[in-house]
Amino acid sequence: MNDRARRRTIICACCGQTAAHRGRGYCVACYTRWVYHGRPATGAPKPGEIAPKPRAKADRVIPAFCTHGHRLNTENLRFTPDGVRYCRACRYVNEKTYNEKQFTYRHNGHDVIPTVDGRRYCRTCNRGEHDIDEMAIERTASGDRPRRVRAAELEAAVIQLRLYGLTYELIAARAKCSLRHAWWICERNGLTKSRKERVS
Predict the structure, then answer these.
(1) Which of 85-89, 109-113, 177-181 has the lowest mean pLDDT?
(2) Residue 84 in contact with residue 74, Cβ under 8 Å?
(3) Tell me: the pLDDT tens digits for 109-123?
(4) Whole-number Å distance between alpha carbons of 88 and 73
(5) What integer best gives the mean pLDDT of the chain?
(6) What's the 3-state SS for the chain?
(7) Which residues pair with 114 in a beta bridge?
(8) Residue 12 burial by CB count (10 A; 0-12/13-18/19+): exposed, middle or buried?
(9) Predicted confidence (pLDDT) per residue in 121-170, tens digit
(10) Confidence (pLDDT) at 40
(11) Rounded to whole angstroms, how far apart are CA atoms 100 and 111?
(12) Sequence spans of domains, the chain
C-alpha cells in the first residue's frame, strides 16, 4: 500500500472538498499550491485566486561550434520539431558510420569492390551468388529458363553447357541469352579455348 492510500480522508480547509489529507488540514492539491507559492502565512490560496508564477525564460545562447568542432552557422545549425538544437554535419557523420556498419554486417564475406565515386558495391548480392537455386540452373541448361534467373545461375548454366561441348550458338539458344553474353561468360571463366588446349 502506497503513502497516498494510507492517508485519511478529510474536508479540506481551503477548497472544502473531501479528499486525502496532505498536511495542515489541506488536501494534496491545496497543500501543493501552498508550497508552490512560498508557504504564505495566510494559508493556501484558493484555486484560481493567484495567477501562477511566470517561468523565467533563459536566453538561448547558441555556441559558435558544436562538441565535435563543426561551426554552427546557418547552413549547419538545425532544430528538431521540439526545438532541440543539433549539428547537421555531426548527424551526417553518424548516419554514414551507421550505414557503413550495416553494410559490413550484411555483406560479410561477400565480394565487395569500390565504385568510381568511392562507394562500396557487393557483386555477390548483385549476381545472386548468396542464394543460388540449383533447380533454376538445371531448367536454364535444359532450355526451360525461368522468368526470373539470377546472373550467377545463368552463368552456372552457361558454364555447364560449355563443359558439355556445345557451341556458343547452341548455348545462347538453350539459355535464352545473346551470343555475345554466352561468349563473355565463357571468356570470363577461361572456357573460350578448345578442349584440347584446356587439357594441355
Answers:
(1) 109-113
(2) no
(3) 888 888 888 888 888
(4) 10
(5) 84
(6) CCHHHHCCEEECCCCCCEEEEEECCEEHHHHHHHHHCCCCCCCCCCCCCCCCCCCCCCCCCCCCECCCCCECCCCCEEECCCCCEEEHHHHHHHHHHHHHHHHHHHCCCCCEEECCCCCEEEHHHHHCCCCCCHHHHHHHHHCCCCCCCCHHHHHHHHHHHHHCCCCHHHHHHHHCCCHHHHHHHHHHCCCCCCHHHHHC
(7) 120
(8) buried
(9) 888 887 777 777 889 889 988 888 888 888 888 988 998 999 888 889 99
(10) 85
(11) 16
(12) 1-50, 87-131, 134-199
Q: Report pTM.
A: 0.46
Residue whose grid cell is 491545496:
30
Closest CA to 51 of 71, 25, 33, 75: 33
